[in-house]
Amino acid sequence: MLSSVLRLLYENSFGGVSAMTPEQYTAINGFSNKFWGWGGEDDDLFNRVRHHGLNVSRYPSEVARYTMLSHKKEKPSPDRYTNLRLGKRRFKKDGLNSVKYQILKTERRRLITLLFVALART
């Protein structure tokens, strides 16, 4: 039973919990700014990772696993498939280097700093 729960939904499934260095995240230009609503953003990030020749390591469930928190499912973005299909054209110009935001509030905590921001849609 446990192995069926841990199986990937599809071969290139990517999302949930992922880790990369700041240098890797900068090299792939972070997340696209084209995905609003639910769907596609994690697949686009995977495509960026693979496009830049980075490896995806998946540890066995005995070493690393997580449980998704319950949450309300968002409305699917009607543009998610188009944005995903055309993503490779935007890797260099859509992401960290083009995100527009305004910092609303900063909270310094013991181990982290929280930034509350307002994002501008592109």
Automatic annotation (TrEMBL):
<feature type="domain" description="Galactosyltransferase C-terminal">
    <location>
        <begin position="7"/>
        <end position="72"/>
    </location>
</feature>
<dbReference type="GO" id="GO:0008378">
    <property type="term" value="F:galactosyltransferase activity"/>
</dbReference>
<dbReference type="GO" id="GO:0006688">
    <property type="term" value="P:glycosphingolipid biosynthetic process"/>
</dbReference>
<dbReference type="Pfam" id="PF02709">
    <property type="entry name" value="Glyco_transf_7C"/>
</dbReference>
<dbReference type="GO" id="GO:0016020">
    <property type="term" value="C:membrane"/>
</dbReference>
<dbReference type="InterPro" id="IPR029044">
    <property type="entry name" value="Nucleotide-diphossugar_trans"/>
</dbReference>
<dbReference type="GO" id="GO:0005975">
    <property type="term" value="P:carbohydrate metabolic process"/>
</dbReference>
<dbReference type="GO" id="GO:0033842">
    <property type="term" value="F:N-acetyl-beta-glucosaminyl-derivative 4-beta-N-acetylgalactosaminyltransferase activity"/>
</dbReference>
<protein>
    <recommendedName>
        <fullName>Galactosyltransferase C-terminal domain-containing protein</fullName>
    </recommendedName>
</protein>
<dbReference type="InterPro" id="IPR027791">
    <property type="entry name" value="Galactosyl_T_C"/>
</dbReference>
<dbReference type="GO" id="GO:0005794">
    <property type="term" value="C:Golgi apparatus"/>
</dbReference>
<dbReference type="InterPro" id="IPR003859">
    <property type="entry name" value="Galactosyl_T"/>
</dbReference>
<keyword id="KW-0808">Transferase</keyword>
